[in-house]
Amino acid sequence: MEKLMTLVNTALIGQRSPLEMEEKLTWQDLKHSLPSGLGLSETQITSHGFDNTKEGVIEAGAFQGSPAPPLPSVMSPSRVAASRLAQQGSDLIVPAGGQRTQTKSGPVILADEIKNPAMEKLELVRKWSLNTYKCTRQIISEKLGRGSRTVDLELEAQIDILRDNKKKYENILKLAQTLSTQLFQMVHTQRQLGDAFADLSLKSLELHEEFGYNADTQKLLAKNGETLLGAINFFIASVNTLVNKTIEDTLMTVKQYESARIEYDAYRTDLEELNLGPRDANTLPKIEQSQHLFQAHKEKYDKMRNDVSVKLKFLEENKVKVLHNQLVLFHNAIAAYFAGNQKQLEQTLKQFHIKLKTPGVDAPSWLEEQ
């Protein structure tokens, strides 16, 4: 206390400001000036506001309270500063990660729960690349004769027969389309020839009857040819639906079955290689993961095999029914046409509900229909 009074007197005599003298007052002097037995934790520094012109007051006194360890010094800000800090604190939300996120209103979103779409896409690409690599390795191993493949002899035989029949049906379809094109050209020629005979029949009085007979014959042949052409086109449409839609849909399922079989064999081979290796803390998790993937692809393979079996069964039933009707139609129409039996030819078309479009006759307008 004597040093403190000496500094104050010196400041008054030398006309120095208290701030200049305060700089000379060191922390050690302040500590020695405190009463004995009073520690640093027993000192409270109180400020009366940022806008107050008075200096801070240091209060020292005997420590009262529980014999707990000394607490650090506490600085009590002014009311204005406290209100500002309270407003800023209300806008701060601490997420689970420990980082502060400033928000104004609305629901609180934790940063740890946000999913990154780019990472999800990257994970999908990684899984796809790994699956493609394993399947490619399996295919190459099978072609080189080094890898084993799962074979269902009965199902594979049915698939081979289906593919062979598809090629044969496509050949029949191609020939029937060629026949239809040639028949259309012949009918068109017969119609033109009949018109020419009819014109000469009117202009040549000497050969009126002869030209007339030939004109009627060619027109009748053209009419019967149009009827036969309608039957052949109906046959072509039905066979085309069977080959390019029904059988093709079944073959698409067969392709999916073969892809599932390759994946199943690839993961089966991978699991067998891991089982042949050592079993330790590093390989056991890989074996469990490989076992899980193998079981998933096995279930997929079994499901696709059942789907192919069911589709082949329904396809065989549908194929027999469709081809039976179409072959009867084709035979009866061809036989009636070349036999010259016009009534039998027309009866065949009625039997299969085939309607012919009369050439040169447009469809009735909406006003005529009403």
TrEMBL record:
Every AH domain range: 150-350
Entry's localization field: Golgi apparatus, trans-Golgi network membrane
Any single Gene Ontology cellular-component annotation: trans-Golgi network membrane
KW Phosphoprotein (keyword) present: yes
SUPFAM superfamilies to which the protein is assigned, alphabetical: BAR/IMD domain-like (SSF103657)
Assigned keywords, A-Z: Coiled coil, Golgi apparatus, Membrane, Phosphoprotein
Pfam families, sorted: Arfaptin (PF06456)
GO biological process: intracellular protein transport; regulation of Arp2/3 complex-mediated actin nucleation
InterPro entries noted in UniProt: AH/BAR_dom_sf, AH_dom, Arfaptin_fam
GO molecular function list: phosphatidylinositol-4-phosphate binding; protein domain specific binding
Protein name in the entry: ARF interacting protein 1
Organism from which the protein derives: Papio anubis
Lineage summary: Eukaryota, Metazoa, Chordata, Craniata, Vertebrata
